[in-house]
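User: two proteins, same treatment. go.

Assistant:
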Amino acid sequence: MFQSEFCNVNYLPDINVVFVEWKEFCCDKDYREPLLHAIDIMKTHANCHYVADTRNGFENEEADTQWVFNEFIPLAASAGCKYIFFIIQPDNRLKEELEGQSVELKKHFEVIACYGLDEVKEILGKIRQVTLQDDFVPLAKLLNEAFATVAKEFGLTQENSPTNNAFITSDALKAQLTDNREFYACEEDGKAIGFIAIEKSLTDTDTFYIEKLAVIPASRHSGIGRQLMNFATDRIAELGGKRISIGLINSNTVLKNWYTQQGYTEFSIKTFEHLPFDVCIMERYLLY
């Protein structure tokens, strides 16, 4: 925690963000010191993002803007930050100052303007690791609802679906949480709205697999899938992974394009006797 007459900096564990609340105009050390404290928090908490409340002040001098570009941005990016939020007044009276920074920030982060912390919480939700002590019933329900949507789009049934995405019982899902797999759920108001599993290859220590990325139908196209993917990518990097692989229905060009935007490239097309479609294997290499 950091406090001064110009700024307060706090870590919000429920959404894993560093919250920088500007009180009034400041410059030089008074401006940079709280941002360096924010960097320290981001380094301490994996996948921590940045929120700046600019409603009571934000304007900074040219020298401080250049410092943000040259110092703050590289440090925040290397700490794993993926989202930068600016909380603004409805009249957006600081539009010019914010836009001056956002152009450069957007080269490294997803930059989002909103009107309050509640909006930030709605966008980020809450990602937490699933353990064997969790209730797997709502998680299995989430996966089944998500698969049913895909099944309808591609004419799949329980009998001809991929075994790792088929309708699944809570006990079967729980049994899949083994030493080489990690499950994560994105929650909103205590309800799981997104799910992702990562699996470490048993034969190649550099390779990890993304499994069961799913978002409830009502929350599709809301950014939850990307948030889960960013989280999983950072987690795989923490575990020392260098390559991420995922299998998709080859005819699903929309999803293939989405993964291409996430840095994945098509590796191969595979045919399986028990599946009525070809599977496209897409991969991404992590650079350190």
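Protein 2:
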Amino acid sequence: MQKLKKTTYLSLLVLVMAAVFAISPFSTTTSYAATTWTGHTTDWSNVRTAPSASSTRITTYSPDTNVTIYASVSGQTVNPGNSIWYRISSLSSSARFIYSGLVAKGSVSNGGNPPPNGKVIIVSLSKQWIYVYQNGKELKNSPATTGQPALPTPTGTYHIFQKLHPTTFISGWPKSSPYYYPPTHITYALQWRAGGFFLHDSYWRSVFGPGTNVWHYDPVGGWLTGTHGCVTMPFSMIQWIYTWADIGTTVIIKN
């Protein structure tokens, strides 16, 4: 009889403990899909070791990076009503997660890639923003201004092959051209494509970021449009990049 009571108590204890863990806020529910599916990032997306924005960041994916979804995980709620994170590594490898709000279904034909190892500078034309990475870790980011509609900044992957400090830019257009500019002093310039394409400072600008590659009013320079194809940014940012970047540093220009 005592043995029967002991068994009954143990059974009840197991049921109680199971109920506690089921409602515990610390429990994580994982729904493993019967088959994996492919998606792509819709914005800059941090890849983390756990389904939480406070967990360790492994790397950052650029927009339109194709990812394979292996599982849906209930984790930290980042946006109201959405606590779902996607596991983007196989179940037999180290866990890697992306917040579901940054992933759309379907692949893109020219999917982006996570920043490669080494020193990498990524410029987003749509965002008018510049990001600096080293070995996949973001070090800095800043608003930027790229080419005006008539003289767009070319997309692609390039490498810095010349550093100038200081220098003077000379217009490649005659004075009769609407694109002519007088000889201009530049403090820091890093050339990433032949034909005069640089990362550089611009003392005549005080505003950078979205909307500055088209006509806009600048409190310092008055009415300005985008560059002649270069990428310019605040002085403190280009000064830091000039010191940090080596000859050969990768420059990726993306839409």
